[in-house]
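Input for the complex:
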Amino acid sequence: MIPFEYRRAADAQEAVATVAARPDAVFLGGGTNLVDHMKLGVAAPHMLVDVSRLPLTEVEETPGGGLRVGAAVRNSDLAAHPLVRQRYPALARALLSGASGQLRNTATTGGNLLQRTRCRYFQDVTTPCNKREPGSGCAAIGGWDRHHAVLGASEHCIAVHPSDMAVGLLALDATVHVLGADGARSLPLADLHRLPGDSPERDTVLAHGELITAVELPPASAMTRWSTYRKVRERASYAFALVSVAAALDVDDDSGVVRDARVALGGVAHKPWRAGRAEDVLRGAPATEESFRLAAGAELAAAEVRDGNAYKVPLARNTIVAVLRDLTEARR
Amino acid sequence: MEHRITLRVDGTERAVTVDSRTTLLDALRERLGVTSPKKGCDHGQCGACTVLLEGRRQLSCLTFAVAHDGDQVVTAEGLGEVRGDGGLHPVQQAFIEQDGFQCGYCTPGQVCSAVGMLDEAEAGHPSHVTRDLAPPGAPDSPAPLDDGEIRERMSGNLCRCGAYVNIVAALRETATASRGAS
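Predicted:
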């Protein structure tokens, strides 16, 4: 590991000014991903600006009835928060399915969103990787691709985004608040993460020096209260998703017709994947297994598979159907 | 870069100079001689380095010591000291009674993780296998701790000897005893 300077930021503005002025500086949150990357040689910053102790640790209701989550709120605290458990169960379930008890006590909300892919080639500096070293190639294409993307990949990168939390937040229409050297801005979480295209080294649309300060959830509804998250993985706990599904349904009790739906997928793409095609099929359709199958099929029609990851298409399809069926039965 | 920091380790103030690259685990083991936290994978995948950092179970291998100037660290060997009597913590006693280890390498991490886990459950934190996330009544009432809950909540601690069955028994015993007493 190369030597680096450590600074504990006094406030968010100072942190942003410091990092924005230094191309070789990065923010340090919980560090569970960054410290590992520094050990592996995947990241080699010359300066760490510690933002984990900034006063961004509150979970509070907004005047409009939404929920604002500070970027330094720990994953375990957010999952345990009474309002998250009551009003946004898809988020609580997503958080609780991620990592381990120890890691959830350390990892922050902002850091979780900005964690990087667990593609084994990205983490192995002896192999080519366009995300780690632009232009060097992609060892996963034609390599061990069992965990890789089936939607939205490019010829330059087939890595998947590892976050569970982000998938839950995406289904709940979260907004991300960001502070940069030029001031504050907000963007839908759906616009934060990128597809790889020809620049897979960029995971998000954030500029260097922009700091996530909070995540905001819109006011809860009957639909968000009946949301959930299911993660399919290779062991029962403490493993990344092969496929995960966050979903919420609003069904008219009299007619049994879906008024509105939210579906987001994890483990299938370079970013948390909003299943807009599935949602379109669901709206106005009867809340039946047949509709759920049509919706899942519509979303996965664009899937492109490789030698090792073809199983993800039926797995995602079946998991979408199962989650929507469970939500429907839970409402009865 | 060198930094002079102070850690409160197992109840004692310890000043130490560390390079910014030194992990909390290496500062404890190599600089302060506190060797109960173990280096297993050194990448946050095994749980052997688990300590109670500011009262919560965390991995000491995935954080730099310099980021913890002024923080309180409790390791397995300090659990009794911090309780004030210097004896064994009930979790440690239960590991002995239920034979919750074989080689013992993962045990200090298991014990610290278990102490943190029991506190989390007592505070009402749900887990991945908790059926009802928002049960009626106070959200901070203690979470249920059946064997499935204990296994899920302890999944961040690997034991290559496979002592899991007895570890679960030890924690079931501790949880039952503490809840019976309260």
